[in-house]
Design a protein that fits this description.
Elements: H1 2-18, H2 28-41, E1 54-56, E2 62-64, H3 69-88, H4 94-105, H5 108-127, H6 132-144, H7 157-178, H8 181-195, H9 202-213, H10 220-249, H11 263-266, H12 272-281, H13 287-290, H14 294-307, H15 309-327, H16 347-356, H17 358-363, H18 365-387, H19 390-399, H20 405-409, H21 416-433, H22 446-453, H23 458-464, H24 469-494
Antiparallel strand pairs: 1-2
C-alpha cells in the first residue's frame, strides 16, 4: 500500500510545481541566506550588516532574528546551489547563476506542501479509517480551495511548521493505534523541530501533551513513561533554542522575535477582541473567506466530537490556543501576507471536521449544495492568487495609498481578497488584449512585473525571459506525465 502514498505525493508535488511562480519574495530568503553562510563558511552569523530579519547580537556579530528550523531544511538546497555556482561560474555571469539558484529554491515550499497533503491523506486513511476516494477528495479540497495553495510557493517558515505539525499528529494517532514507542518519539522529534522553527509551536506541544494524558487506557506507570520519553525527546531542542536565544539577545529565554525590534508585528499588546473579530469576520482577513469550507467544519464539529472525542479535543485545544495568542498580537493577521498567514500552520486541523465527514456531507442535500458553493468560491479565490501575485498586489496597493487597515482589512471593495479577484481578472484580460503590464516603483524586475500582470507561473516567465517555448515544453511535459501516472495509480487502488 506504500505505492498509494507515493502516488499521492507525486500528484501534489507535480501540481504544486506546475502552479509555482519560480520566484519567492518571502522571508524564507533570509533563512536561505543563513543556510548559505553555514555551507560556505560554517558559521551562523555574519561579520557585516545584513538587510532583512537580521540584527546585531551582544557579541558584535549579525544573526537572523528568526529561528533556525527553516534554515536546517534548506541546507541540502544551499549545498546544491553552491555546487552549481562553482560549476557555472566558468560559463555564465553571477547574475544568471543567482537567478538559477533562486529558481531552484522556489520549489522547496512545494515539496513541504506535497508532504503535508500526503500526510493529511494518510491521516484520514489510517488515523480515521476513511476510504481512498473521500480521503483524496478531502485532501484536494484542503489543497485547492484554501490559502494552503498560495503558500505552496512561499518559503514562510509557517509552511514548514504545517508539515511538521501534521506529521506529529499523524504519528500521535499511529502511536495510539499501535502503542509503538517509535511513533511517540518521532512525533516529538517533529514537534521539537517545529519549535525551533517557530516558537509559537509550543502551543502544539501543549495540545499534544493534553492528548497523551487523555489516553486513559494506559496504566499510571505507562503514562509517566510516555510523558518522560516525550520530555526527554524535546530537551535537546529546548537546549538549542536557549543557547541560540542567548547568542542573539544575551537572554536565554528571549528570542529576537520577542524583542522591541519586532514589536510592530509580534508585541502581545493588541486588542484581543479586535483580533478575534478580524480573524472571524473581517472582509480582508477572515479565515472563512480564505478557507470557506471551514464553515462546514464548524457546523460538523459536534458530529466530529461525538465520533472522535480525543482528536476533537486536540483540535479544539490547538485552535483555541492559537486564536488567543494570535488575536492578541499587535498585527493579528501577520502583517504582509496572503490572508491570516499565521493560521497556515494549523489549517489542516481546523479542516479535519469537514474532511473526516466528506461522505456525510455528500449524502445531505443542504450540506452538499453548501459545500459546492463554498468550495467553488474558495477555489476561485485561491486560483486568483496563483494567477496573480499577492506580494505584488500589496506593493501596488501601497503605492496607491490603499494598503491601510480600514481599506485592505476592514473595507470591502479594496480588501485583499476582492483586490486579488479584480487583479486576476485584469490579468486574464491583459493576456487576451495584450494591454500594457502594471509597473511599480519598488524593486521588482521587469520579468516579475510581467508575470504578476499576466499569469504568474514559471513557464510563462521563462518564455518571457527569452527561453525557447519548446525547451519550456520539455520541462513541463514530464510533470504532466507524472501527474497522469499518479492519478491512474490512485484510481486503480480506489477501484479495489
Amino acid at each position: 500500500m506504500a505505492k498509494i502514498y507515493w502516488s499521492v505525493f507525486i500528484f501534489f508535488w507535480t501540481l504544486f510545481a506546475l502552479s509555482n511562480s519560480g520566484a519567492d519574495n518571502s522571508e524564507g530568503l533570509f533563512h536561505y541566506r543563513v543556510a548559505l553562510q553555514i555551507i560556505k563558511h560554517g558559521q551562523l552569523g555574519f561579520d557585516t550588516p545584513q538587510d532583512g530579519v537580521f540584527q546585531l547580537a551582544p557579541n558584535g556579530r549579525i544573526y537572523a532574528g528568526h529561528e533556525i528550523g527553516n534554515t536546517i531544511l534548506m541546507l541540502p538546497t544551499a549545498l546544491l546551489n553552491v555546487f552549481l555556482e562553482n560549476f557555472l561560474s566558468r560559463f555564465v555571469s553571477q547574475k544568471i547563476i543567482e537567478k538559477v539558484q533562486q529558481f531552484i529554491l522556489s520549489f522547496q515550499a512545494g515539496v513541504y506542501s506535497a508532504l503535508t497533503a500526503t500526510i493529511f491523506f494518510a491521516t484520514l486513511r489510517l488515523g480515521f479509517s476513511k476510504l481512498i476516494r473521500p480521503s483524496f477528495i478531502a485532501t484536494i479540497f484542503l489543497s485547492l480551495t484554501t490559502f494552503f495553495w498560495t503558500y505552496t510557493r512561499n518559503l514562510f517558515d509557517g509552511v514548514l511548521c504545517t508539515t511538521l505539525l501534521t506529521s506529529s499528529f499523524f504519528l500521535l494517532l499511529r502511536y495510539r493505534q499501535t502503542n509503538r514507542l517509535v511513533f511517540l518519539i518521532s512525533c516529538f522529534l517533529c514537534l521539537g523541530l517545529a519549535f525551533i522553527t517557530r516558537i509559537s509551536m509550543i502551543l502544539a506541544i501543549i495540545a499534544t501533551f493534553i492528548y497523551l494524558v487523555s489516553l486513559y487506557r494506559s496504566s499510571l506507570g505507562r503514562r509517566l513513561w510516555e510523558l518522560s520519553l516525550a520530555i526527554f525527546t524535546l530537551i535537546p531542542f529546548f537546549i538549542w533554542q536557549s543557547w541560540y536565544n542567548y547568542l542573539r539577545t544575551g537572554i536565554f529565554y528571549k528570542s529576537p522575535v520577542q524583542t522591541a525590534v519586532y514589536a510592530e508585528n509580534n508585541a502581545l499588546d493588541g486588542n484581543i477582541l479586535l483580533g478575534l473579530a478580524g480573524l472571524l469576520i473581517s472582509p480582508g482577513k477572515s479565515l472563512f473567506i480564505y478557507a470557506p469550507l471551514l464553515i462546514l467544519s464548524v457546523i460538523l464539529f459536534k458530529k466530529f466530537y461525538q465520533e472522535h472525542k480525543k482528536e476533537a479535543i486536540y483540535v479544539l485545544t490547538l485552535t483555541l490556543l492559537w486564536f488567543l495568542l494570535h488575536a492578541k498580537l499587535r498585527s493579528w493577521y501577520g502583517a504582509w501576507g496572503w490572508g491570516p498567514r499565521h493560521f497556515t500552520s494549523i489549517l489542516p486541523f481546523m479542516f479535519l471536521p469537514f474532511a473526516v465527514n466528506v461522505e456525510y456531507v455528500w449524502r445531505k442535500t443542504a450540506l452538499r449544495i453548501s459545500g459546492i458553493i463554498l468550495a467553488s468560491f474558495g477555489f476561485i479565490l485561491a486560483l486568483s492568487s496563483i494567477i496573480s501575485n499577492w506580494h505584488f498586489r500589496m506593493m501596488y496597493a501601497y503605492e496607491r495609498g490603499l494598503l491601510r487597515d480600514d481599506i485592505f482589512v476592514w473595507g470591502f471593495w479594496n480588501s485583499q481578497p476582492v483586490d486579488m479577484l479584480k487583479g486576476a481578472f485584469g490579468n486574464i484580460v491583459r493576456v487576451i488584449t495584450h494591454a500594457p503590464i502594471i509597473t511599480i516603483k519598488q524593486t521588482y524586475s521587469e520579468a516579475n512585473e510581467y508575470a504578476s500582470s499576466t499569469i504568474n507561473v514559471w513557464y510563462n516567465s521563462l518564455i518571457y525571459a527569452g527561453i525557447p517555448w519548446y525547451l519550456v515544453v520539455i520541462l513541463v511535459v514530464p510533470l504532466l506525465i507524472l501527474m497522469y501516472l499518479s492519478v491512474r495509480t490512485i484510481l486503480h487502488y480506489q477501484s479495489e
